[in-house]
Amino acid sequence: MSVAAGRSGKIGPDLRVVGAIWRRELLRYARDRSQLFGAVSRTVLWLIILGFGLGAALRDIEGYTYAQYILPGVVTLNILFASLQSAIALVWDREVGLLREVLVSPAGMPAVTLGKVLGGATISLVQGSIPLLAIPFLGLDFGPLRLLLAWVVMFCMGTLVTSFGVIIASRMRTFEGFGSISNGIIQPLYFLSGSIFPLKGIVGGVGFLDIPAPLRAELRELGIFAIGSGWVVQLPTWLEVLVFANPLSYQLDLLRYFILGFQQLPLWLDYLAVAVLPLLALAVATLMMNRLRQR
User: Fold this and answer.
1) Are the CB atoms for 55 and 66 separated by under 8 Å?
2) CB neighbours (10 Å) of residue 220?
3) Over residues 227-243, mean pLDDT
4) Distance of alpha carbon 87 from alpha carbon 161, whole angstroms
5) Mean pLDDT along residues 241-263
6) Mean pLDDT value across the chain
C-alpha cells in the first residue's frame, strides 16, 4: 500500500479526517484568547510604536512612510507566531498521549498532516489579518481585490511555516526543545526577509511625502519613488546572500507588492516561492509524520 493511500486504504487524504483535525485546531485557537492578545500586542509594538517612532527619523522608504513599509512585515510576524504555536501543539499532543492515539488509528498520515497544516494556516490567516485593520489609518489605498490576493499569499505563507514547524516538532521529544529550535531558526528567517529594512532603493528622500497624493501616485507610475536628497540602500554582500537564500523573503515581497504596490525582488521568483514551496514543505512534513508512525 502506498504512503498516500494510508491505513484507510483510500487513495489520497480522507477529507473527513482532514476536516476533523482542521476543526480541532480552530476550536483550540478559539478557546485560547492569549494568541489573540499576542497578535494585537505585536501589532501595537511593531507597527505603531516602532513604525511611527523609527519613522520619525526615516521620513520615507521608496516614497512610503516607515509604518507603511513595515506593515507587511508585521503581518508576516503574526503569521510566524501563529503557525509555530499550532505546530508546537504537536509536541504537547505527544506529551499527553493524544498523538499516540492518532498514530495507532486507521487515519492516514497525509490526512492528519494536511488537516494539521491547514488548521495552522487558517489560524495564521486570522492572526495576520489583524495588522491590516490599521490600513485606513496609514493612508493606504487598499481595494477588495488586493485584499483577496494578500490573503492568498498569507495563507500560503502560513502553510509553509506550519509545515516547517511540523517537521521540527516531529523530531522533538520535549516542549522546551522545540522552543529553542524555533527561536534559532524562525527569528533569523524573519529578520533576514527584509521585513524591517529595505533590500534596495532610496531612503530619506526629502519632500516626497509632502506633495499631494495624486501627484505622488503619478510619480510612482513613472517609477519615481523619492525626490530631493536621500541615500541609496546598499546591503553588505554576505547579508544580501542570506536574504536572497531566505524563502520567506520572496513571499513577504509578494505580500508587500499586493499591499503597497511595489516589490524589491523579481516577481516571477515571488510567485514561484508562493506556489511551490508550501507544497514541498507539506510533502516533507507528511513524510516525517509517516516516519513518526513507523517508529
Assistant:
1) yes
2) 16
3) 72
4) 9
5) 90
6) 81
Cell of 48: 505603531
Cα–Cα distance measured from residue 155 to residue 152, given in angstroms and rounded to the nearest whole number: 5
CA distance 140 to 143: 10
Instruction: In whole angstroms, give the CA distance from residue 170 to residue 247.
Output: 21
Alpha helices in 192-246 (DSSP H): 213-221, 237-245
| Residue entry with cell 492528519 | 112
Residue 130 CA, chain-centre distance (Å), reads 13
Q: Using the predicted structure, report yes or no on whether residue 247 has a pLDDT greater than 50.
A: yes
pLDDT for res 282: 94
Q: What is the CA radius of gyration of the chain?
A: 21
Cell numbers at 208, concatenated: 516626497
Amino acid in the structure at residue 293: R
By C-alpha distance, which of 110, 87, 142 is closest to 258?
Answer: 142
- Alpha-carbon distance of 174 to 155, in angstroms, equals 28
> Taking Cα atoms as reference points, which of 31, 24, 41, 28 lies closest to residue 77?
41
- Which pLDDT score is estimated for 235? 73
Distance CA 118, CA 111 (A): 10
Residue 4 is predicted with a pLDDT of 44
85 or 253, greater pLDDT: 253
**Three-state secondary-structure class, residue 121:** helix
Task: Count the residues in the chain.
Answer: 295
Burial of 221 (0-12, 13-18, 19+ CB in 10 A): exposed
Which triple of cell numbers denotes residue 13?
A: 487524504
Query: What pLDDT, on the 0 to 100 scale, is given for residue 99?
Result: 76
pTM attached to this predicted model: 0.83
How much is the pLDDT for 5?
Answer: 46
CB 60 within 8 A of CB 141: no
Contact 60, 226 (CB under 8 A): yes
Residues in a beta bridge with 202: 232
Q: Cα–Cα distance between 125 and 71 in angstroms, integer?
A: 15
